[in-house]
Fold:
Amino acid sequence: TSTSVTGLTANTTYFLHVRSYCGGIDYSAWMTFSFFTGYCTPAPSSVDGQGITNVNMGTINNTTVNEAGNYGDYSAQTTNVYETQLVSCAITYKTGYTYGTQIWVDWNNNLSFLDAGELVYTGISTSNNPTTLTASFTVPSGQPLGNYRIRIGGTDNDPGPGNPCYTGSYGCFEDYTLTVIRSEERRVGKECRSRW
Structure:
């Protein structure tokens, strides 16, 4: 048996109460389940040094320090991209260790990073302290216009966390938002800037 519920609010915990009708006035006891209408929250138990201290990607240039739970939700910070664009992302670590790094983008906006094609980058930083890893990935051809959550994660478990919902040790994660625009909008913007 299944049902669909609409009109729910994002990033909210809901409780579902279910019981069986047994005939007449007879019902089973209530069973209660909870579910969250949002992305999983990575929660590494520890991090080397300060973890990720800067992400520079398009118009995002975010300097951070240790976040609670070694995870920062910066999804309010956005940068524009367009389909087939090669996006460059510089990630600065202050760890003193090599950190396996992965980047996921939820291209279908289903609140999961586990679908095919959503792991867009895997690499390893150096152990210099600080060190900056330059990553890149390509926006898929035909990607619909709109906003998409991007998650950057790094752990000292090389070659990378492998899990966007990582809860092990020595890791750090940050979320941002990509806004896919038409490539024509990008060209018009450049023309306007060059004229002024």
